[in-house]
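Narrative of accomplishments. A recurring question from our advisory board has been how the design workflow behaves on a single, concrete structure rather than in aggregate. To address it, we present the structure tokens for one chain from the evaluation set, followed by the sequence designed for it. No filtering or post-editing was applied between the two.
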């Protein structure tokens, strides 16, 4: 790498500004429609092409790292870039800027839904229907990339059957872990080129502390929840555990969150899916769906707690993983395990497409037709998801008149 490129990939402390990171991330949070894959493209254009905060190879390595870790991949990429640019304050600024706009919009939507009791209005049902098209598109796209051959497609189908049969948070975790072991032992092992050098402001000592906190919270929060009956602790545990165990990010969070908030009686399936549909309209990370759920459960304090909890593991994982990444990604067995996990993610999402998305939304031939049109607009006409969501909401309102 030339000296100039090293300077771009490893910027010095001079000129690094937390406010600069916050401003750029906020603009991305206001304009990044289209889901995690689109977010990666927006980030590349802004951080690599326009601002040259890091080079192409360094950016590709960060994306690979965040795809490997559980949690929201696009948010983790932003957090990592903020950390590289301006340390831990930069990471926090990148997260706030990218997350706050959509979280605020979903909090407002939750209050509107509760205050005016509009769950039964036709446009809300249109949001439930468009969720079918959005999740179907995600399954289709992810299957082509993550389960392209017979072994991984088989893992995906078996995971879908298990996910539909065993609809619990523990079931989701065991499916992911089992798929990882299958990939580790059975899938082909391929060597991976070494990653480019990236200046990491956190050392390995901080990384080990971060890993310790990550696993301590993951193991102790459920135990503390059994001892204490407080709702705040239960809320924090549910959302932290979800953020810690969702591989694939994006729409894969749906079944895990549904298993946490609906069976517990915190909200109805209709309230859950209405919020999920609304989350498609706003830019930014889909994990801000937690802000809507927290608002329905306990108002704006619940929204704040749920949002912090679901993203906290992303900070701990990024701090813990960055210093070790150059070694990890050269290990073929880790890559094989990841391939198995990614195939299982496709299966889990396929199971979620059936239940709760399809079973709650498609109640008539008209609903199926609207979902099919929305799917065609997304996959064939390549319209932005927010446009399709608005169209489906209007379609649901029109259908309710007949």
């Amino acid at each position: 790498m030339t000296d100039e490129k090293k300077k771009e990939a490893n910027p010095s402390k001079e000129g690094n500004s937390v406010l600069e990171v916050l401003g750029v991330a906020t603009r991305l949070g206001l304009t990044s429609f289209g889901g995690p894959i689109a977010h990666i493209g927006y980030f590349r254009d802004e951080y690599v092409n326009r601002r040259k905060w890091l080079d192409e190879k360094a950016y590709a390595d960060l994306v690979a790292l965040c795809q490997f870790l559980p949690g929201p991949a696009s948010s983790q990429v932003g957090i990592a870039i903020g950390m590289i640019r301006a340390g831990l304050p930069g990471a926090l600024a990148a997260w706030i800027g990218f997350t706050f706009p959509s979280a605020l919009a979903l909090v407002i939507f939750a209050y509107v839904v509760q205050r005016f009791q509009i769950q039964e209005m036709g446009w809300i049902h249109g949001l439930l229907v468009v969720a079918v098209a959005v999740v179907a598109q995600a399954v289709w796209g992810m299957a082509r990339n993550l389960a392209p051959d017979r072994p991984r497609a088989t893992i995906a189908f078996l995971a879908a059957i298990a996910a539909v049969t065993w609809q619990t948070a523990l079931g989701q975790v065991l499916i992911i872990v089992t798929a990882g072991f299958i990939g580790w032992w059975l899938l082909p092992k391929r060597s991976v080129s070494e990653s480019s050098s990236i200046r990491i402001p956190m050392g390995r000592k901080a990384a080990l502390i971060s890993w310790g906190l990550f696993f301590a919270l993951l193991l102790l929060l459920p135990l503390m929840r059994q001892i204490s009956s407080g709702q705040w602790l239960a809320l924090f545990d549910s959302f932290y555990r979800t953020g810690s165990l969702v591989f694939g990010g994006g729409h894969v969070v749906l079944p895990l969150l549904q298993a946490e908030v609906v069976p517990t009686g915190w909200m109805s399936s209709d309230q859950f899916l209405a919020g999920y549909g609304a989350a498609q309209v706003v830019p930014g990370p889909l994990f801000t769906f937690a802000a809507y759920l927290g608002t329905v459960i306990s108002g704006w304090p619940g929204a704040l707690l749920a949002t912090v909890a679901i993203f906290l593991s992303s900070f701990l994982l990024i701090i813990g993983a960055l210093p070790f990444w150059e070694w990890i990604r050269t290990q073929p067995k880790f890559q094989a395990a990841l391939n198995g996990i990614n195939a299982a993610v496709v299966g889990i999402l396929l199971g979620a497409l059936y239940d709760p998305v399809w079973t709650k939304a498609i109640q008539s031939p008209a609903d199926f037709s609207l979902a099919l049109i929305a799917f065609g607009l997304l996959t064939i006409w390549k319209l932005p998801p927010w446009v399709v969501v608005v169209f489906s909401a209007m379609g649901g309102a029109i259908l309710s008149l007949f």
